[in-house]
Design brief:
- With 49 residues, the protein is mainly alpha-helical.
- It has 1 helix and no strands.
Length: 49
């Protein structure tokens, strides 16, 4: 039983780190995606003129 508990704790710790990493990554990529979206919108606006 202690091995199963240790495995469960490792999985919980890994899930916690992955959620934290994805949140940090998402916060840093949001401005980049807004900037890229703006550049794409400008590029398509220039093509349609």
């Amino acid at each position: 039983m202690p091995e199963a508990l240790e495995s469960l704790l490792w999985c919980a710790a890994l899930a916690t780190w992955l959620m934290l990493f994805s949140r940090i990554l998402g916060e840093h990529l949001k401005p980049l995606s807004k900037h890229l979206g703006h550049l794409i919108a400008v590029a398509f606006r220039l093509r349609t003129k």
